[in-house]
Amino acid sequence: MKKITLLLLLLSVGLLVNAQEKKINPNYDEALAKKYGAEENGMKMYVLVILKTGTNTTATKVETDSAFAGHMANMGRLVKLNKLIVAGPLGKNDKTYRGIFILNTKSLDEAKEILATDPAVKAKLLDADIMNWYGSAALAEYLKAEDKIWKARN
User: Are 132 and 48 in contact (CB under 8 A)?
Assistant: First the structure.
C-alpha cells in the first residue's frame, strides 16, 4: 500500500510540474513585444470605451454635423498620437450604444482626458462608459493593414 501511495504521489508531482511548464513561442520577437508594451504572455491593458447617445437633445443639425466632423478629425489625430487603437460604430441596439474605442492606455484618468478632446463628447452628443480591457498587445498592428484594404470611402 505504501508503494502505491508513493507512486501516486510521484506521478501527481510529475503531472503538476509538467502542467506548470511554460510553453515557449519559437516565433517570439522581443523587439516587437517591447514596441507594443507586451507582457510575457503577449497581452496588455487598454481602456475600452463604449460610446452612447449623449444627453444633448437640442443641438441643431449644423451643431451636430460640426461636432461629428470634429469627432472624426479627432479620431484621426488620436491614431497619429498612438492613443486610439480601434474605433468603429455599433449596429442598432436598444441600449443607445453608438460605437467603441480601444484606447492605448491603462489609465482611466488618461482615458477621460482623451475623451475630453472629442467635440461630440464635449457637446454632450455622445457620452461614454469606460473600463479597463485586457487584450493582445499586437492589436495596434491591424492599423498598418487597415489603410491598405479599403478601396473607397465617403
Answer: yes
Single pTM value for the model: 0.81
Spatial separation of the C-alpha atoms in residues 69 and 93, rounded to whole Å = 23
Is 152 inside any structural domain? Answer: no
Could you tell me if residue 19 is inside a domain? no
**Contact predicate 76/68, CB 8 Å:** no
Dist. CA 60–CA 147, nearest whole Å: 33
Q: What is the pLDDT of residues 32-87, one digit of tens each?
A: 999 999 999 999 999 999 999 999 999 999 999 999 999 999 999 999 999 999 99
Domain total of the chain: 1
Q: What is the CATH number of the domain that holds 110?
A: 3.30.70.1060
Single-letter code of the amino acid located at 95: K
